[in-house]
Amino acid sequence: MLSCPKSVVGHPELIKNTGFPPKDLPTGRQAAGMSSCTVSKYMLNHVYHIIATLGFIGYIPHAPGTFGTAIGLFAILLTRPGDAVLVLLSIPVIIVGTVSAHHIEKVLGKDSGHIVIDEFCGYLVSVMFLPKSTGYLIAAFVLFRLFDICKPAPINRVESTISGGTGVMLDDLLAGVYANICLQVWRVMFG
Predict the structure, then answer these.
(1) Tens-place pLDDT, residues 28-80
(2) Residue 150 to residues 136, 139, 144, 153, 175: CA-CA distances in angstroms?
(3) How far is CA 103 from CA 25, 94, 115, in A?
(4) pLDDT tens digit sequence for 13-42
């Protein structure tokens, strides 16, 4: 972790240059006026931005959350990971996503629609411990989006009571749990 002085956090160059499309790193006179710590923090903010928006999928004009979920669907469709692998990969993705969402929410605003790492992670939760057949994966996609959009209780209270990256991620993780429970019940009854 960087040990930058507190004056670097919230530095105007870091805030204004975190937008989309990302600007190049400062060079010449601009770079000469910035400490190496500031440049490192600047680069770290861009990494957070790329993670939180899934490589800028979050900037698709219509339904960016659905596209973020679709990235999760295609990743699982292409790789068909086992449950152990999915859990082991999901844990660090959720942690890094939470940290990234926390930092970028300060720039983009509370639970900005551009932040879509939460939809990606929520979808991963929705398919855990289920068959990775196309039918289950598509059903998980539909149910996850339904719960994410409708936000039944207690999901609807999470965003207003928990702030920062944790609040951004938690409502989608709960929507993933709801979708997963529905599909687990379906599997037991009809599978």
Answers:
(1) 555 556 666 666 777 888 899 999 999 989 999 999 999 999 999 999 999 99
(2) 21, 16, 10, 9, 9
(3) 19, 14, 11
(4) 444 444 444 455 555 555 556 666 666 777
> HSE-up of 57 (CA within 13 Å, CB side)?
20
Q: Where are the alpha helices (DSSP H) in 9-82?
A: 12-16, 28-32, 36-52, 64-79
Residue from 47, 180, 54 nearest 118 by CA: 54
What pTM value is reported for the model? 0.82
Q: Is the peptide bond before 5 cis (omega within 30 degrees of 0)?
A: no
Q: Quote the strand ranges of 106-164, DSSP E.
A: none
Element (H, E) at 85: helix 83-108
